[in-house]
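Shape matters. As here.
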Amino acid sequence: MILIDGKKTSLEVQDEIAEEVKYLQGKGKKTPHLAAVLVGSNGASITYVNAKVKACERVGFESSLVRLPDTISEEELLNKISKLNNDPEIDGFIVQLPLPDHINPKKVTQAISPNKDVDGFHPENIGKVALNLPSFLPATPYGILQLFERYNIETAGKHCVVVGRSNIVGAPISIMMGRNAYPGNSTVTLTHSRTNNLKELCQQADILIVALGKQEFITADYVKEDAVVIDVGITRINDKTKKKGYRLVGDVKFDEVAEKASFITPVPGGVGPMTIASLLKNTLLASKNKIKG
């Protein structure tokens, strides 16, 4: 079994981005600028956004954090997004999810300019992914593809089973794994909570990508020998033996599944850090696109 180290790989990607930023600056080009919009004070969201800001500093990006109260109206938030769309200094920006219940996340996603949508959530960018056209790739699926590349994991002709159909991970990664490219060229089965024979399908998977949001749902009896297992899920559970009073687990029961897998991502330290690396790659691309334009 080979442990896929997302933290180490993410730092390698960030080092490469930092070199490219230095090159652009040496040519007198603008430094890439990423902005993050944080609505409210969700603890996990604050942690994620702070990690993104720290990563920007590491690679030499400019970064802006726009903090807004959870009482902000949908209209006010959309106005703020419009200003970011029209700010020439900002190359790309994200609106951290989840949002307060009174704000429609779909409206927010669609309000972001596709040219600055470095999370890769806008329908125009998702449509381009489906048509295999150049676009910003959704950050978490893009991170998974980079792990396949960097660990030289063969995907062509493999049966890839995706568990979970969210617009953020499951649906886009199913499209990307079936495209005529590397990583890709897999035969893809997209499963979800209504799939009747879920265990049997998982047992057929050469590559199993799990983004279900249910802690340790996938046990060893779901996984065939030598499968590649990618665990996207992350859940915080109480654990008094830990200093923080909790620990993080994935959708896969790691200890028992690891004994059968050829490659496996841990939680934490697997897919999560690669999401940030992808966000930075997309921001660099957005900045270079503006230079070309």
